[in-house]
Amino acid sequence: MCPSRSRFAAAALAGLALLAGCGSPGSISGMVSGAVGVELSLQGPAGKTQVAARDGTFSFGDLPSGTYALVPSLAGFAFEPPSRVVTVDGSAKSGQDFTAKGSPGVLDTVFGDGGVAVVNVSTSAVALQPDGRIVLVGWTAAPGIGPGNSVVHVVHVQRLLADGQPDPSFGSAGGVSTGVPPLACEGRAVAIQGDGKIVAAGACNSPGQKGTLLVARWVADGGPDGTFGSSGVALTTIGADDDGVLDQVATGVAALPDGALVVSGFFEHPYTSVVLARYRADGALDGTFGDAGTVMAQFGMDSIAEALAIQSDGGILITGAATLADAGTPMYVARYTPRGTLDPQFGAGGVSYAPAFPLGQGVLSTYATAYTLAVQPDGKLLAVGGAVGGVGNALGIEALARWTPAGEMDPTFGGFGTPPAVPIVPGTATGCPSGAAVALALQPDGRFFTAGNCQAGEGLVAGVRRWLPDGLSDRSFVADLPYPYALQNPRALALQPDGKLVVAGEGWVARYWP
User: Fold this and answer.
1) 3-state helix vs strand vs coil in the chain, percent to 5
2) Which residues pair with 265 in a beta bridge?
3) Is the pLDDT score of 418 beyond 70?
4) Which tens digits make up the pLDDT trace of 93-137?
5) d(CA 407, CA 20)
6) Where are the domains of the chain?
7) What are phi and psi of 9, to 5 degrees?
8) Nearest to 358 by CA among 390, 316, 406
9) How remote is the C-alpha of 375 from its chain's centroid?
10) Binning pLDDT at 50, 70 and 90, where does residue 203 land?
11) Do β-strands 261-268 and 272-279 pair in parallel, antiparallel, or remain unpaired?
12) Angle (nearest 5°) at CA 504 between 207 and 449
């Protein structure tokens, strides 16, 4: 209880520190940046707790005078400063701010809802715009556009704001779709042009129908680009078999500085063959590339191209799997010149095959494929995918391989930590059992992220992990996803300028602290 005092005593005390718990009520306020859901604990003459608002603001009012300790907390996060000491003397103490930083692999709670955004697209690829917005490409179900108003798959593009919310300025509620009824269409790859236009590549196929490669382009607000192809869509049929039925898939797309596009993929005719196509800025095939705009190749009995990358000199790299007559089905990388011919200076005649991967139990892989490819800053080529072997292909593993710029296996990569009964294979590394890596993102420091359908292994949940530059697992990064997203495989990765990792899967997008 505060002592009584005369007006003269009160005037004297006004210039001195007030007794703890005495004087007019005060307040403490501030902001927490970097995280949502932070709890603030106030300890002192009046103990209180509250969770900061979504915008990070907090305020404690009606506080008796005295000294307080203010402490923020959220699982997986550290704060700068860790706490604050605030003396309340009847006035408002504002600006008591904190900055949150998540541990590697912790969901960024500022993004979406607690780190995860639910989207209306089964994502195959993701790209970042320079302004931080996130572009997802894949497919969604569209009712009422097929024969008899049947439901079919259509290519779908979804754009999110940097915080994971739908972009209201893009299409309808942040999404746009395109299709070719009655074919089932899907988007497999995405590129952002220098002028901000969005390009998706994929396929339209259906049993009993002739398939086609699909490339579509949208302007910045999601409207179809009328200057490209037919109303924003370019369709390309490669070859034809005896029945006129042909499955075709575009798996990669790259936007070139002059506005042209390079697309990779494969088709069945009747064996699976690789295809490359180059389109002019208007969506027409570039007749100066390959054979009237396209290149078809087989690096074995069956060859698929799952991804492509463009080198700084314009060289075109593709990766995937090739079935050889006497060596199983290895992972490969091939290099083409900008005009569409195999580069004889790369590998052996333009192609380089990775050796078999050690699967454990003294077994090497008999089938391996790469699903994505990246050119590192030093020019080395990194591909990631999966490999299987053994009786009934019962043994499988996440498989990685790295080549030198000349197409030779990189002896400084992988070959570590293999069981004694398994030969060391320089240039290759293996990870999660019973899984495959389908996405890849490079960090500036040489480390890199992969994602896929990994279901087991040291702290791995939903198959998102980080690797050291030499191919060893980086155990400082342990990713987690809440149910049910952990059951829905990641498909695509992108690294933001601040280092945070965007992961997209079947109907969801998450963001992690690095």
Assistant:
1) 5, 50, 50
2) 250, 275
3) no
4) 999 999 999 999 999 999 999 999 999 999 999 999 999 999 999
5) 74
6) 7-102
7) -65, -40
8) 390
9) 16
10) very high
11) antiparallel
12) 115
